[in-house]
């Protein structure tokens, strides 16, 4: 008989397809801890655990690999990320619960659980990467059992994730300064498939870490194209850059909230041409006005009506750029475009930080930059002490 977790009726719709919900590593850790402590303190058989998540969904999670000795119990819960493309899906989150003479409940990280090595994260340097909400869930569940069992001693809960070191190396953790494994995380206890809020939260975490470690000026690319261009063509430390995906507006908002002094974006024109129209989420499902914006700015630069019409019929920005180059207007068009990119970014941030952007194309290379770019490059080089070349 198939085990029911409590998520059978929960799903989201993405591109007309049902996407199944899952549960976080934090929920796995809390459920495993609850089960282990119940077995240890109440001396009874426990094969599955009920766990109320912060989202208000009651999970029923199966305990695996149960083993015990005189003063300890170990067990695991298997992570199920639902239909989210989650690197930690299928990992088993283990906990070993041990009685101690010292009062209180102490959480420790073992094999496969990352350790914090840089400031700016939820936990202090040297701590296991077990985030605030999972810690709260774990402590709530285990303290209730201690009270119910009239147990006045202490507990040591050691979490481990076999294979977590390998998986952690493929996540954002090394960039954030989390070494040796995955993070035990999750704010709702539930994984919503392809969640925008989760991705934006990961951008916020990386940004905060950079700011806490002295980053007054940030170097940001929307994605892989921008990162590759930065690495190959610019005299700035690629390894200090971060990605913001399509969330230009949210990135600017978060930077403003953290009192960042300036940001230099390095972006393919296919993304940032939309910012010239005030579009702050550049995903194609939100807006795709690339041809219209290029045509409008080409008209401002003096392109022929025939050329503008031809741009409107293009599918890619490189096709549109070919039309603009044919009429020898690439430089003035880029001047118009970058002027408007800067206007809308300044508008979003109320002119309260120094902003700039370098725009390029895979086919045509460097296209243009906003007026503050050289100043931002100097400030970033000074911040990271990289000499200009």
Mean of pLDDT:
92
Question: What would you report as the Rg, rounded to the nearest angstrom?
Answer: 25 Å
Spatially, the strands of the biggest sheet line up as: 6-7-8-12-9
From the N-terminal CA to the C-terminal CA, the straight-line distance is 66 Å
Work out the oligomeric state of the chains in this entry.
Answer: single chain
Q: Work out the number of β strands.
A: 20
Portion of residues within helices: 25-40%
Number of helices: 13
- What is the overall silhouette? elongated
Q: Which stretches are poorly predicted, pLDDT < 50 over at least 5 residues? A: none
Largest sheet: 5 strands, mixed
Polypeptide structure, described:
The chain has 13 helices and 20 strands. The strands form seven sheets. A five-stranded mixed β-sheet has the order 6-7-8-12-9, with helices on one face. Strands 17-16-18-19-20 form a five-stranded mixed β-sheet, with helices on both faces. Strands 1-2 form a two-stranded antiparallel sheet. A hairpin with a 5-residue loop joins strand 4 and strand 5. Helix 9 packs across helix 12. The longest helix is centred in the C-terminal third of the chain and has 19 residues. The protein is elongated.
């Amino acid at each position: 008989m198939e085990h029911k977790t409590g998520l059978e009726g929960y799903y989201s719709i993405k591109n007309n397809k049902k996407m199944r919900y899952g549960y976080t590593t934090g929920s796995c850790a809390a459920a495993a801890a609850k089960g282990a402590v119940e077995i240890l303190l109440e001396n009874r058989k426990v094969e599955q655990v009920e766990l109320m998540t912060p989202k208000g969904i009651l999970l029923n999670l199966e305990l695996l690999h149960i083993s015990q000795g005189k003063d300890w119990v170990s067990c695991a819960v298997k992570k199920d990320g639902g239909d989210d493309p989650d690197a930690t899906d299928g990992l088993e989150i283990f906990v070993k619960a041990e009685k101690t003479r010292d009062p209180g409940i102490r959480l420790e990280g073992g094999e496969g659980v990352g350790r914090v090595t840089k400031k700016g994260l939820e936990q202090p340097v040297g701590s296991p990467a077990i985030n605030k909400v999972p810690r709260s869930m774990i402590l709530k569940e285990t303290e209730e059992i201690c009270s119910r069992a009239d147990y006045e001693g202490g507990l040591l809960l050691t979490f481990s994730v076999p294979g977590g070191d390998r998986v952690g190396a493929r996540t954002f953790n090394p960039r954030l300064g989390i070494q040796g494994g995955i993070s035990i995380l999750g704010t709702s206890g539930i994984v919503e498939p392809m969640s925008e809020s989760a991705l934006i939260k990961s951008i916020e975490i990386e940004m905060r870490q950079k700011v806490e470690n002295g980053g007054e000026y940030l170097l940001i690319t929307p994605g892989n194209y921008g990162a590759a261009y930065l690495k190959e063509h610019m005299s700035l430390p690629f390894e200090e850059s971060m990605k913001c995906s399509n969330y230009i507006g949210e990135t600017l908002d978060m930077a403003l909230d953290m009192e960042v002094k300036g940001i230099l974006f390095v972006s393919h024109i296919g993304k940032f041409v939309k910012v010239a129209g005030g579009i702050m989420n550049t995903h194609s499902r939100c807006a795709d006005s690339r041809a219209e914006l290029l045509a409008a700015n080409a008209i401002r630069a003096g392109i022929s009506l025939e050329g503008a019409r031809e741009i409107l019929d293009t599918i890619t920005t490189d096709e549109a750029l070919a039309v603009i180059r044919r009429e020898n207007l690439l430089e003035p068009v880029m001047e118009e475009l970058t002027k408007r990119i800067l206007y809308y970014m300044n508008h979003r941030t109320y002119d309260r930080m120094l902003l700039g952007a370098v725009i390029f194309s895979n086919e045509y290379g460097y296209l243009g930059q906003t007026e503050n770019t050289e100043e931002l490059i100097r400030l970033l080089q000074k911040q990271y002490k990289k000499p200009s070349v």
